[in-house]
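Justification of computing resources. Each target in the renewal requires a structure prediction run like the one illustrated here; the chain below, 65 residues long, is used simply to show the kind of job we budget for.
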Amino acid sequence: MRVLAIVACMLVLQGCIHKVVTVPVKVAYKTTKGVVKGTAAVVGAVIPDSDDEEESKQKHSKEQD
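Resulting structure tokens:
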């Protein structure tokens, strides 16, 4: 009888346990994702790309030819 009651409680509370576990994980994921995107944007703005320099050199060499 006790085993049946435990199994019934597990089945009924399964949805609650799922919410308790997944909601904090989703919040942490979204927060981390936003922070990483913001950091990448700041780093990209501060550190110039060498691609821009290469493109300007190629344009300059084409203009001279």
